[in-house]
Amino acid sequence: MNKLKRSDFLLKPFLKRNNYRAFYQLFTTILPIIFLWLIVSKIIYSPLLQISKGLLLIPILFLLTLLSSRTFSLMHDCGHNSLFEKRSLNNLFGFFLGLLNGIPHKPWANDHAFHHRNNGNWEIYKGPIDVLSLEDYEVLTKREKLIYKISRHWLMLFPGGFFYLVIKARLGLILIIFNFIQSLIIEISNKIRTGNYSALLNIESRIKSPFSDYGDNFDELFDLIANNLIVITGWIIMCKWLGAAFFLTFYSLILTFSAAIFICIFFIQHNYENAYASSTKNWDIVEGAIAGSSNLDIPDWLNWFLADISFHSIHHLSERIPNYNLRACHKANIHLLHKAKFLKLRDFPNCFKYIIWDSKNENLIPIN
After folding, report:
1. Residue 196, Cα to own-chain centre: how many angstroms?
2. Which end of the chain offers a freer environment for a tag, N or C, measured as fewer CB atoms within 10 Å?
3. Any idea which of 30-34, 47-51, 150-154, 263-267 has the lowest mean pLDDT?
4. Count of alpha carbons within 13 angstroms of residue 151, beta-carbon side
5. Are the C-beta atoms of residues 77 and 21 closer than 8 Å to each other?
6. CA distances from 164 to 213, 252, 309 (A)
């Protein structure tokens, strides 16, 4: 059978973006979030017993978690410039949606674009949890292997999710400021001795964060600073409204569970049995899109909260297809997706075994 090319797929009719559909998706996501938080405030200040309040808050926590995942999915579309017709609208609302989850949109979108450019090439892109090659894994000590295995267990989705949305952007900014001041002090002391001050203007070389997706350029730095200022201000306002202890606990749970969901989804859509896991030499981007991206056979209501990212092979064939066209495009090309992987909910746990890249045989293998 001949190797498939992108031109074999019917993609063009589904590339058209629609502002009305995009705004409708935003309104049907943001308005319920506002409404649910208003209900939360009513419950908090009601004379009900604490046990009754807790029981009422559980379904709201569940819904806000799912809606938070949906805001992330819509932000994801903005990052691909695929939700709205104009890039300016995608940038604006991508930034806004990032605020709701405390994640800077621009750095995230740039980092995610790298994933799309190299999907299926495991020599360059090691997946969302930085999978080790078999060679690198085998030289680890027993203790290091145990740490590696534990750190990539599915239960780590929860502390990982908390770090990803609650801590990472705040810590990233702190470290950038610290590194900037430290390097500036060192350079000033050096220039005083040499008398050459021209290099002091090279500010960009000093804003690089230890995190690969923060501080690569001034656009990312601006997004990181603006996100933190607005997010922290919002947290302070919400603390005054609902009480600091309650809000920080409740909101942290929402972000933790939400991040756990989309990190899980991202992981299982690229780490699974017989996933395409090529080296650079043999890598093919279309093969990576089809055989290196799983599609999820999950209930329609859950797909709504994920903005149809379940149709992942098509998404990787063309990330410019809006989420509201993915399902139709998937159906139009289903006859070409015979090599694509389809996962059900019961298949998800098994995917977390595939955390070793066998570069010799070019596949993902389960850990012993």
Report:
1. 43
2. N
3. 47-51
4. 11
5. no
6. 12, 11, 20
Round to whole Å and give the CA distance between 351 and 225.
Answer: 36
Q: Which of 129, 151, 149, 138 is nearest to 270 (CA)?
A: 129
pTM score, whole prediction: 0.89
Supply the Cα-derived Rg of the chain in whole angstroms: 22
> DSSP assignment of 305-359, as one string?
HTTTTT-HHHHHH-TTS-HHHHHHHHHHTGGG-TTS-EEEGGGHHHHTTEEEEET
Separation between Cα atoms, residue 173 and residue 215, nearest integer Å: 9
- Reported for 6-9, long-range contacts at CB under 8 A and 24+ positions apart, including other chains, are 6/286, 6/317, 6/318, 8/336, 9/314, 9/317, 9/333, 9/336
Give the span between the Cα atoms of 72 and 100, in whole angstroms.
9
Mean pLDDT, rounded, for 28-56: 92
Helix 19-44 × helix 87-101 angle, to 10°: 20
Determine the Cα–Cα distance for residues 65 and 135; give it in Å rounded to an integer.
Answer: 39
CB 316 within 8 A of CB 291: no
- Mean pLDDT, range 77-90, rounded to an integer: 97
* Domain definitions of the chain by residue range: 6-163+213-366
**Range name among 9-23, 202-216, 346-360 with the lowest pLDDT average:** 202-216
